[in-house]
Amino acid sequence: MASADAGTCPWDALPLHLQERILSLLPITELLPVAAVSRAFHRLLRSPTFHALLSPHRLDAFFLLSPRLAVHPLSRRVRTMPAFAALSPPSYPLVSSPSPSLLITCASLQFLPPIPDGAYLLSAIVPSRGSSTSCTLVAVITGAAARSYTLDTGDPSPQWASRGDLPLSLTLLENAAVSGDRSKLFVLGRGPEALLVFHLVTGTWEVLHVVMPQGLTTAHLFLFDGSLFLVGGIESFGVVDRVVVWRLDDDKVEEVWWREVSVMPTEVFDELLAGRFGRFWHFQAADRLGIVCLYNAVDRRLVMFDAADGMWTVLPRLSALDACESFRWFGHVLEPGVEILMGLR
């Protein structure tokens, strides 16, 4: 039996549907070299039935640094975007959605009614199940007259609708984390520090009764595995002396608090600050499925945090970005789609 099967690959003996199931567990970027193995693999990877099995892989994403460069967590490398031309958005992105393949850009906004005066885009929400070309945009005005607006890009004649006023006078709303069911936004308010929730169906805002970490400077909210996380710098006497990750816990009745779950190791912290102790106070951030990249745009230093295992990683330093590029694109995440597989030759 062994000699009779010596020339037969066990893989070829598997039914096609099992081959598809196994390969669908791989990240799309890892599938690209597989297509070169044989014509059979090439046909399988281009099959619509195989594409229907694919789901986002948490490590397989591109954190954009510029129109040319992106961080790839899976390979822990900075990649050149022209090699992944199918991922490149057509123009400067303003806000990304919880479906990272969709970016709202200057070009796309030209086909929509102008944003209300004084407002800025906060988030773009794509339905959990639905067309990736339709989304709900949320715009806000901060300050003494803080209010919000929404627009459904899927409407035949989309218009900005005035929604609820914010319950606080805030200097700025930072990033918004979208709940898994797309029903609400968790939003970080600054000046004063507060955690807010925007309910998309009712258009109403509420302030969660949670004490924000003392000394919080720059910060970023993200959701992973049903929990809300906060990563931020802690300032002491005007100096950022550590970066901490907290998880929002509410397992007690009528009590919600931030529980510290990780502190950036000293060697990683020193890399991120690049020796600018007492002067560097801000990092940019982007997240996807529990992977968070923190970026010191001044010195072009990158570190990564994985909420799945609590690990911190120092990523390669950047030397190819000029000052304009360094501040221009980061904060947006793209994931490779089946378009890459369909483009295989």
From TrEMBL:
Instruction: Spell out the Gene3D superfamilies in the cross-references.
Output: 1.20.1280.50, Kelch-type beta propeller
Domain F-box: where?
Answer: 8-53
Checking InterPro entries in the record gives: F-box-like_dom_sf, F-box_dom, Gal_Oxase/kelch_b-propeller, Kelch-typ_b-propeller, SCF_F-box_component
Which superkingdom? Answer: Eukaryota
Protein name as it appears in the record: F-box domain-containing protein
Taxonomic lineage from the root: Eukaryota, Viridiplantae, Streptophyta, Embryophyta, Tracheophyta
